[in-house]
């Protein structure tokens, strides 16, 4: 049983609902971040994705700037920047600039995947595969650009040198656990969609962790799908949008986020498909009482330090309400912990 207080944060994909414009989507992300700040969330991260009608967070660093500008103290960052898509120098310059504009508020989460399909990954960077293979070295370059010592080097990111922007390793397999442990960096696992290796990855990270200048002991974050409403039935109805989106992803029929419908036998049947069940294993959908019980069990099992809630639903107000209710759940669970 976990006795520590658990931080809670948000991962946003700037989900584009059918009938909404991208401008409305970005404005909603800001409104959500402002509500999250008021509700006690620790951080608001944006994920990098490309070539998807339903996801607006492709120019991730620009959206991070918008969110940071419109909030006061919540941490804002990337969950994550897909590093093989980018030059480490450019990433250091972008996030160094953000760190200067919004001091002690910017996080740089780094992932190895492309955040898109293979054809788009190649369009982004023709040598993507080689870049992915050199992920550990590319992270080391970013660390070097942020160091004060880099002022003596021929290639510099002057806007990054000495700026406090903590790095996080993102992952969806055990490979990333070994890397995060070796580098002594905090580790965020994408268990909101990649569920199979969560427990193994956390065990590896804790077992192999080497203290670093960044971190003296392991720190873990886990993604969870959260939909909270006044009743179990209402949450289930709202969740039909998420299930339709996941089924679209698995069948290659990508589209905007669809409006919810009453839970039908067809959707119930699709929900039981092994691929859907596997992808959404760590999804907590229901009333406050139901989700609180399930989240408590998840925390006790994983012993993570922080939860990153992902709430991909159609209606903006429903989404903000779900996040507010989840913040209440987390505050109640933390109040039950001994001081």
Q: How is this fold's topology laid out?
A:
Blueprint (H helix, E strand, L loop, with lengths): L6 E6 L9 H18 L3 E4 L13 H10 L5 E8 L5 H14 L4 E6 L6 H7 L3 H6 L1 H12 L20 E5 L2 H10 L3 E3 L8 H11 L11 E9 L3 H20 L13 H7 L2 H6 L3 E4 L1 H15 L3 E5 L5 H20 L4
Parallel strand pairs: 1-2, 1-9, 2-3, 3-4, 4-5, 5-6, 6-7, 7-8, 7-9
What's the short version?
The protein is of the alpha/beta class. Helices cover 46% and strands 15% of the residues.
In the sheet with the most strands, the strands line up as 1-2-3-4-5-6-7-9
Question: Span from first to last CA?
Answer: 15 Å
CATH topology: TIM Barrel
How many separate structural domains?
1
Q: What's the alpha carbon Rg, rounded to whole Å? A: 19 Å
**CATH H-level homologous superfamily name:** Luciferase-like domain
User: In percent, how much strand structure appears in the residues?
Assistant: 5-15%
